[in-house]
Amino acid sequence: MKIRDRLLLAAERQFAEQGALDATLTEIRTAAGASVGALYHHFPDKAELYRQVWAHALADYQQHFWAAVGDSLDAEGGVRAGVTEHLRWVTENHYRAKVLTSARPPGLRDSDSNREFMRNVARWWRTHAGYGAVRDLDFDLLYALWLGPAQVYARNWLGGEMRAAPIDIAPELADAAWQVLRTPRPGTQETAP
Hints:
The protein has about 190 residues and is an all-alpha fold.
């Protein structure tokens, strides 16, 4: 494994376990088996190292989420797959998930890769809303309804407040997301929230 990758993995663990403020470059460098020169060759300061760790975690999450949603055969499958993949990823990527629940470094929201991810998900949603399978919602509200409960559960699990692993409760949260996001069937007593 290349030294840069070892530094990113060591930093990911330190930031997840201790937080960005308390983790030290010395601990990260030691855990990675890197020299002081190697650390500063790749990352000029701790802020840039944190930014790179956060960006790497976000890119990994987005890649997995989009693969699950983008490959779905229909709206219901995509909504359920998004929740399930979110919870699977958190369960299997404890350190990265903890990093992503920490403060977002400046500039990442506006990165090209993040904008592309958001465009893809929004386009996928609009396609299914266009033929009436799901509710036509503002993206911010859609995001909160689709992944909000899963994120709250995952954050609490990462903090040690929940015992069941997120993936173990995925079917229930995926079902809840589908129930709230699907277009109510005509001729029924169903009403949208």
